[in-house]
Amino acid sequence: MTVFHRVTEGKLGSHDGCTIEDEVSQEFLDRIPGGLFRYRADDEGGTIDYVSRDVLELFGCATYEEFCSITDNSFIGMVHPNDRQRVTEEITSQIKCGNTDAVTYRLNRPDGAEVWVDDRGRYVVDDEGQAWFYVTIIDITEKMSYQRKLERAEERVEMLTVLSRDVIFDIDCQAQTGEIFGDFEARFNREPQSDDLILQKRCDKECSIDLEVHDIERIRDIVAQGDFIDMETSLPNAEGDPIWCRYQSFVLFNGVGCPVRHVGRLLDTHDMVMREATLRKKAELDGLTGVFNREAAMARIEKALASEDCSHGCSLFLVDVDNFKQVNDGFGHPEGDRVLKEIAAFLGRNMRKDDVVARLGGDEFAVFAAGLVPGPALERVLAQLSGGIYARNPRPADMPEDLQPSISIGAVVCTRTSVTFDDLYQVADEALYVAKRGGKSQAALRRLD
């Protein structure tokens, strides 16, 4: 006879919740999900004196005798040999703090099949002083398989994050908590802040792999429904220097439009961005003089002409080297190259940082100054450039005085709001022709109103 609480009225006419005495039939026990068994708590190995049919089925046994031959009729014989020490230690530790234990382990099946169970036991001493463990076990093999897949997926994310130096984040918008995967501190030399987030064969073995393809359409649909951002940006490191990354994230919303989850990543693009910037800069510069080449200068000038920088006016100077052909022919290309480099440096020193200094080709240079309008400043700049001493190194001793190269300038100052580079170039070229006819070191200015 067993004392228990019946939930509904029983055959003895009891009322709900009343404590009564009634027999627990084998049929009743067999209908409880999972396996039930009892084993002695005071002998080595834990001798079993009761086991339910479900336990036998978990071992693939048809009879109790078959079960006993596999397990030696003991609890420890039920546990896979590789798990026995851990399980024994865990149960001992837990019983020291109470009368229940919870462990997981693999069954010691003779066919080698991996069956995991969740074991919940209670330590009981009966009226005769005998100590027992009453245990229920549930098959959790599928759960463990899923858990291993989940752990493997997490490890895969971590390994790929390490290899790519990316940072992945997952924010719970409601709880205002977040997780970051990846070494943020190594990349940015500081701790993350909330604002930062808002084929080679390795062996000789033949490979024959069963591949599992994961369907990402569900996730793709989720992302499509969210608020997706994909942009190149930079975050400051501890010293305030920009560290470039590609920011990708999406936000999931609930039924009433409130954000519930924000997931994204910071792709490590810093080295790539810096390389591209270096290559782009090299592609924009003249290889000899280091100033802008014609294509880069025209693009920058056209962009400036369409901006507010030129709303009040601008100036374009065309600079030509006097006597350059005679210098190049009479003293060689190295001397000619030195003249070009010195003139480019001279123009750069005497113009503002944002002004465009370019070599258009041969010995022709251009200077564009946004916001430089008619007045004393323009006149001073032209006088300084046309009459300045650009050469910092002495010319060859046998170079005649009248052959010393200088520069002539054709300038145009424009106060029109709608003008193109070609418009400016045409007028400046006409002014340059006038300056060249006037002699060396001359400047001629035209207006375009």
UniProtKB/TrEMBL annotation:
Q: Where is the GGDEF domain?
A: 312-448
Cited InterPro entries? DGC-Regulatory_Protein, GGDEF_dom, Nucleotide_cyclase, PAC, PAS, PAS-assoc_C, PAS-like_dom_sf, PAS_fold_3
**Start and end of every PAC domain?**
101-152
Pfam families per record: GGDEF (PF00990), PAS_3 (PF08447)
Record PANTHER family: DIGUANYLATE CYCLASE DGCT-RELATED, GGDEF DOMAIN-CONTAINING PROTEIN
Q: What is this protein called?
A: Diguanylate cyclase
* Species, as recorded: Adlercreutzia equolifaciens subsp. celatus
